[in-house]
Specification:
Elements lengths: L3 E3 L4 H6 L38 H6 L6 E4 L5 H4 L2 H5 L5 E3 L5 E3 L5 E5 L12 H7 L5 E7 L13 E7 L6 E11 L4 E10 L3 E11 L2 E12 L6 E12 L2 E14 L2 E26 L2 E27 L5 E26 L2 E27 L3 E23 L6 E3 L5 E20 L2 E18 L4 E19 L4 E12 L3 H4 L4 E4 L2 E3 L8 E14 L2 E13 L2 E7 L5 E7 L2 E16 L2 E15 L9 E15 L4 E10 L2 E3 L2 E3 L2 E13 L2 E8 L6 E7 L3 E9 L3 E11 L9 E3 L3
């Protein structure tokens, strides 16, 4: 579906900016220093000079470390979820559960409006991405090599979801209603009322989805007890209807031009009841076990965030000081009820009841300073401290097979506490030299992580200091072409579940446990690219290389005749590199075509896990879209995504393919009708194979990903219209 690279002068862009954005199309010209201010007369106040930015500097100071995709014309973006929009962004992939990867790497940090939030914690990120309403999104920024300005979390880079917000004087807003098959629906209202001194904005969204999940798992192995050949076949079916409620409110107070105080409150609530059935059959030699498991699980999650910010300008808008304090609280609850039916050999029915409660308060204090200097340069510095404490309580009880009475199950009951404090200092310096721009930065972090498995009396502590440097270079070879080069050092910190060593009982055949000895994974990333823009034609090419060490991955092993334990381990190192290409052309006025793809090589050294010294493979992804303007009022869109076979430490993941279709018709200037079909050919599935000396496993998952939506979007308001910034259309 279409998206657009566009130039943005938001604070997040300007804070990291030097490189020409994808929007570079302006005529080349060399920046001239500002003229010297005349000497003031006695008794006359001296005003600080405004350092004008020429077109060339504007290009170099705009988006050195990112690509910006405007999703305003994306039809799926008006009816679907954030996952639907992200699937159409070059280099980004989203699996059937909502897990996001960037250039094949799943360790991506997702921000909202340039900041980390409890909403996008890694533990619940996939669920949020699959439910977050796409019509709340203004544009998406993909930052594969972030500057030292940003937290280094996310070895693949950063995806920043920037929400819609209008600040023009007056009032404006929109109402959105969508209806889909299988009782899917969405309702949204957002508005803005700007009184110049006060600016009020907010929105509410209610969305219901329908999820059907099926999975098959076929394992063959050698029984570790008897030495006989063994196999297990499992089939799982789940159904649930998640409901997503989102509320956002912000007030800005600007008593004078140089000062602004703002308060933003965001709240979201997600709930559903999961119904599941699992059928298992295990064969060891000639003996066979047949078993069924029923699941009933009401779940909910609530996130609340408050952010207070003060901005001060020292006489001009490019010399600023910002103070920010935020508080977040995430609460999750699962109430799992299982019933176990044993068909062969016949045994009494048993039941399990497992309650999981999670509470996570997070506070962050941030100070940022920025100053543009007279010599076409800019300095930035900041201090950031984040305090995070997560408490997880697991309480389990089971029925006694003989009496049928409920008894406490100690193997299902435990408490785990994770405390993490990260303090960071950073500084960046950027400068333009005619056609050349450079941004250099460094971030110093002090990270302390404490884990306490209260039930098992296992405590651990990690503390480490790291320097995270970054470098970005850009050179305009012509008015239509630019060369880019960048480097960054990134980190992947384990999640709470990755640390908790207490086994989590999933079913009689599967256990999951964390590893308190996991080290943070680190990666050194370098990439260089060239971009060409001339009229309606755009070509982009990027070469990238990643060297990673202490990467951790999921490892599965049999611990008895039937039970598979899944945990996390550090792997020695990995090397990956590849080529990213994209092209946007318009053969004739009504039609716009775009194609993008990645080809990359991945090599893993997993010798410390007992496998071959190196495992390697080539992989690639491809995306294509067509945007056809049937008339001034009607737009057709079609796109497809293909992901080739991918390597995992213990096996590989098979290819995936999905296509989407949408039509938008403007009934009036402020009223639009939308029809969208997701997964047109019902082809989306995920199949993973494990192939080790002791275990062969074929695991396939599917969901009801083909769905239909009808929608109406009505816009209203009398806000003063401002001239839009120059944009470069780039459809994915």
């Amino acid at each position: 579906m279409p998206a657009e690279f566009r130039r943005s002068r938001t604070s997040r862009l300007s804070l990291a900016a030097i490189l020409v954005g994808i929007s570079a199309g302006a005529t080349a010209q060399t920046a001239a220093p500002p003229p010297p201010a005349p000497a003031p007369a006695a008794g006359v106040d001296v005003k600080l000079p405004q350092y004008d930015v020429t077109a060339r500097q504007e290009r170099l100071f705009n988006s050195i470390d990112r690509k910006v995709y405007d999703v305003g014309r994306d039809i799926q973006g008006q009816t679907g979820t954030a996952a639907d929009v992200l699937r159409r962004i070059p280099s980004v992939d989203v699996d059937i559960d909502g897990n996001v990867s960037l250039r094949g790497n799943g360790n991506v940090q997702i921000l909202i409006d340039g900041r980390p939030t409890a909403l996008m914690r890694k533990a619940n990120q996939a669920d949020v991405i699959s439910q977050y309403p796409a019509d709340a999104i203004d544009h998406i920024e993909v930052i594969t090599n972030p500057s030292a300005k940003y937290e280094p979390d996310g070895t693949a880079g950063i995806i920043d979801i920037v929400l819609k917000k209008k600040n023009e004087p007056g009032y404006s807003g929109s109402v959105r209603v969508t209806m889909g098959n299988n009782k899917r629906f969405g309702v949204g209202l957002n508005g803005n009322y700007n009184l110049r001194i006060f600016d009020f904005s907010g929105g509410i969204t209610l969305r219901q989805d329908d999820r059907v999940r099926t999975a098959t798992d076929r394992r063959s192995y050698v029984d570790p007890v008897s030495g006989l050949p063994a196999s297990t076949q499992s089939a799982v079916a789940e159904h649930f209807r998640p409901v997503f409620q989102l509320g956002q409110f912000e007030i800005d107070y600007k008593p004078q031009k140089s000062d602004k105080l703002s308060e933003a409150i965001d709240s979201d609530y997600r709930y559903f009841t999961r119904y599941g059935t699992e059928a298992d059959q295990t064969t060891i030699g000639s003996a066979q076990t047949v078993y069924n498991r029923l699941r009933y699980d009401p779940e909910y999650e609530r996130d609340v965030e408050s952010k207070m910010k003060y901005d001060h300008q020292f006489g001009r808008n490019d010399h600023t000081l910002s103070l920010e304090f935020s508080w977040q609280h995430d609460t999750e609850s699962e109430d799992n009820h299982y019933t176990d039916l044993y068909a062969s050999p016949v045994s009494p029915t048993t039941s399990d009841h497992i309650r999981v409660q999670s509470n996570e308060p997070v506070t962050e204090a941030l100070v940022e300073y920025s100053n543009a200097l007279p010599d076409n340069s800019k300095v930035e510095a900041g201090f950031d401290r984040t305090d995070d404490k997560l408490t997880q309580d697991h309480a389990g009880e089971s029925t006694d097979p003989l009496t049928g009475l409920w008894v406490n199950n100690t193997s299902l009951t435990n408490e785990f506490i994770l405390q993490q404090v990260i303090a960071a200092l950073y500084g960046t310096y950027e400068r333009a030299f005619g056609n050349f721009g450079a941004l250099v930065g460094v971030r110093l972090e002090d990270a302390e992580i404490k884990t306490d498995q209260v039930t098992a009396a296992l405590a651990a502590k990690q503390r480490y200091y790291r320097l995270y440097p970054s470098l970005h270079l850009a050179y305009d070879v012509s008015a239509t072409g630019q060369i880019q080069l960048s480097y960054s050092h990134r980190v992947q910190r384990p999640e709470a579940d990755d640390f908790n060593p207490y086994p989590e009982y999933q079913d009689p055949y599967n256990l999951r446990a964390g590893n308190p000895n996991l080290k943070p994974a680190e990666v050194h990333s370098i990439e260089g690219g060239y971009q060409y823009k001339n009229g309606d034609t755009t070509y982009l090419g990027t070469l990238f290389y990643r060297y990673a060490y202490n990467m951790f991955t999921t490892v599965s092993r049999y611990i008895n005749s039937t039970t598979l334990l899944t945990t996390e381990e550090n792997i020695g190192k990995s090397n990956s590199g590849g080529l990213e290409l994209a092209a946007d052309v318009s053969p004739w006025k009504p039609l716009s075509l775009n194609a993008s793809g990645d080809v990359y090589y991945n090599q893993i050294n997993a010798s410390n896990l007992g496998y071959g010294t190196y495992r390697s493979t080539m992989a690639w992804t491809a995306k294509m879209s067509a945007d056809y303007a049937w008339s001034k009022a009607t737009l057709w869109q079609f796109n497809l995504n293909y992901t080739a076979k991918r390597l995992t430490p213990q096996g590989y993941r098979l290819p995936t393919f999905v296509a989407n279709l949408g039509v938008k018709h403007d009934l009036k200037s402020n009223l639009s009708f939308v029809v969208a079909v997701s997964d047109l050919f019902n082809s989306q599935k995920e199949e993973t194979k494990l192939d080790t000396p002791v275990l062969h496993d074929d695991y396939t998952r599917r969901r009801n990903s083909r769905y239909f939506y009808l929608g109406l979007v009505y816009s209203f308001g009398s806000a003063e219209k401002k001239k839009k910034p120059e944009i470069l259309q780039f459809e994915n």
